[in-house]
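STRUCTURE:
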């Protein structure tokens, strides 16, 4: 009897959880559409006035007072302007595109000026079910800008299930921003601490890595007849269909780091790669790397080994823009030299 009663309790609890979740999403969807319609009504009224700007300001100001007096909080002038902007950016309300998005998420995204960046966050926040905290963190860390344009195009093709030729480098960011680890900027000699922090924040790290990554193991042992080797972190990417080995460094990239990763990748390809898997990818996460090291090592020609910098503190918008610009210039220079 106790087991049967426990099962009944669990079944009923699951029903309630499902109902609450469904009700929450339904309410979200209804409110999003309502705010969109409010924005539509404001725009239509503004466009009907003879002195649009002055009349529109008074409309929002007076409407805010009326709605606040009638319904309470949530109808400030700023929020009504967000609703107006919501309609202007999305002339048609797309339930599928806006699914899983709370009004807080939408209001944050529509403050982005760049239409491509704005659409990217709308689609990603909806499809990946990002919370407001995740969304805010990704916007502040320049998540969109750290993706190559080819990555976005590739993701679109994958979403449409169209045949594409997948290039592993299109999945690699540079730099990676790991401010969620709560580690100081200088962690030289503390690889174990960095690894433990990443494991403790695995969900956030997976989000930073991007689409398709699933965790396999830490300190993954690769054995030959005579030796044992341990890779710091191992993932599998189901879009690339391959293992991804990550080696953590708390110093500037060295030739020895590249040689070690080259060995790991070769061993994984020979000993762990399954039938139907693509070649293994190796990513060395380092605090810095020199042009010379990249230019005169296997990194220049390799399609399997990559070195990316990481930051343990959130850079300012100016610092981030400068970092991205420098990396783009390096990529452009490398592509020109190869051509």
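SEQUENCE:
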């Amino acid at each position: 009897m106790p087991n049967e009663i426990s099962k009944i309790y669990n079944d009923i609890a699951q029903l309630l959880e499902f109902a609450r979740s469904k009700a929450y999403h339904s309410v979200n969807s209804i409110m999003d559409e309502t705010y969109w319609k409010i924005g539509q009504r404001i725009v239509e009224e503004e466009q009907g006035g003879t002195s649009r700007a002055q009349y529109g300001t008074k409309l929002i100001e007076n409407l805010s007072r009326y709605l606040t007096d009638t319904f309470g909080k949530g109808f400030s002038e700023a929020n009504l302007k967000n609703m107006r902007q919501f309609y202007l950016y999305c002339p048609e309300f797309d339930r599928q595109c806006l699914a899983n998005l709370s009004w807080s998420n939408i209001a944050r995204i529509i403050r982005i000026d760049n239409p491509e960046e704005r659409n990217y966050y709308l689609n990603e926040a909806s499809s990946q079910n990002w919370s407001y905290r995740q969304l805010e963190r990704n916007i502040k860390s320049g998540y969109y800008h750290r993706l190559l344009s080819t990555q976005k195009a590739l993701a679109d093709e994958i979403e449409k299930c169209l045949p594409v030729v997948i290039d592993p480098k299109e999945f690699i960011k540079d730099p990676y921003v790991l401010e969620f680890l709560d580690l100081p900027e200088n962690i030289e000699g503390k690889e174990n601490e960095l690894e433990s922090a990443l494991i403790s924040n695995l969900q956030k790290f997976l989000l930073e890595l991007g689409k398709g990554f699933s965790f396999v193991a830490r300190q993954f042992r690769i054995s030959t007849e005579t030796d044992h080797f341990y890779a710091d972190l191992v993932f599998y990417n189901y879009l690339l269909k391959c293992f991804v080995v990550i080696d953590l460094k708390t110093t500037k990239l060295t030739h020895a780091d590249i040689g070690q990763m080259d060995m790991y990748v070769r061993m994984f390809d020979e000993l762990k790669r399954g039938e139907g898997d693509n070649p293994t990818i190796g990513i060395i996460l380092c605090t810095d790397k020199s042009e010379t090291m990249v230019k005169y090592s296997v990194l220049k020609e390799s399609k399997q080994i990559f070195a990316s910098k990481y930051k343990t503190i959130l850079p300012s918008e100016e610092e981030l823009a400068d970092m991205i610009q420098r990396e783009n210039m390096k990529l452009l220079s490398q592509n020109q030299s190869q051509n």
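REMARK: Residues 152-158, 160-164 have pLDDT under 50 and may be disordered.
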